[in-house]
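Sharing a chain and its predicted structure for anyone who wants a worked example. Both blocks are below, sequence first, tokens second.
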Amino acid sequence: MKKFIKVLSSLVFLSISLNSQAELPESIKIGSDTSYAPFDYIDENGEITGFNIEITKALCEKANVKCVFQTTDFDALIPSLLSRKIDMISSSLMMTEKRKKQIAFSDEIFATKSRLITKEGTNILPTVESLKGKRVGIEQGTSQEHFANDVWRPNGVTIVPYQNQLQVFSDLVAGRLDAALQDEVTGSYAFLKQPQGKGFIFAGEALTDKKYFDVGVGLGFRKKDNELKEAFNKALVEILADGTYKKINDKYFDFDVYNKK
């Protein structure tokens, strides 16, 4: 009898394992905000690319899941996931407590800081006192917007939301904004190091409010899609171990963007 129970238990475990594997879809739709170079952007051939995209493609290959990317405005990423228009989010989505109430996150993919950009010589700093009466451009739905609306707007700072980050930079150059708040890497790579960023600088230090920032970036999933999330967590461990992550990191950055402690 004991032997029979042991065999039966093994069969049940095998059945559960096979069922779990079977629950992984052959193909998933992945939403990405492509206005956020170098993480997610459209290249000269019209293809979606960037650090996030290449990392996600590597994860999809390890998880044996076909991934189809589609451009989605940042503030529409979570609504699109919840309404099943997409199956996963691959964008610079910080894992804030507010977002964790709506969706599930993978393990940390990378970490980045948030910085204010202003025109050189304005002496503007990322403080309420310095920004009072000023216009600050921010991409809709970002952690930067949540922070600015909660902390800066009630204290006299005009927060101007934009559909994507490229529009923010465009209006900053045109003089319609006094400053722009975004993540440090995008601010540097997509603006300050580009011709249009000449004469602009990072103002002051990075913002450190842990309610909004310094919480790491992860892939977003619907809460019930636990098997899919765990498959991508397993794949992340594998690409970190076999050097794939580092190879992609070094293609885009001269520092280690994987900040896991």
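Comments welcome. Residues 27-111+216-252 form a domain with the D-Maltodextrin-Binding Protein; domain 2 fold (CATH 3.40.190.10).
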